[in-house]
Design brief:
By secondary structure, the protein is of the alpha+beta class. The protein is built from one helix and three strands, in the order αβββ.
């Protein structure tokens, strides 16, 4: 699992920035990101972040009232073409 150290680094960086802070809003930009709608993602808006945990390849963000928001790290590679960029063989 080569990306687990990445998750640990993300958690360490997030801890300094989000623990004890209020999450203003949640915006789901793709339906593929959403795995459940009960409770709705917006239900964590305005709540204080109290914990961060790693669940395998996922980052779990815990809130004061026991709700958790779980995110999965996904690496997305998109082909780029433009001037000076060769087409693949």
């Amino acid at each position: 699992m080569p990306d687990l150290p990445d998750i640990t680094i993300y958690l360490e960086a997030l801890e300094r920035r989000v623990i004890g802070k209020t999450l203003n809003r949640v915006r789901v930009v793709s339906p593929f990101l959403l795995r459940t709608a009960v409770p709705p993602p917006a239900s964590v808006s305005g709540r204080n972040v109290s914990a961060l945990r790693r669940l395998g390849k996922r980052i779990a963000i815990g809130f004061d009232d026991g709700l958790w928001l779980v995110l999965r790290k996904i690496i997305l590679v998109q082909p780029v073409r433009g001037p000076g960029i060769n087409k693949p063989p």
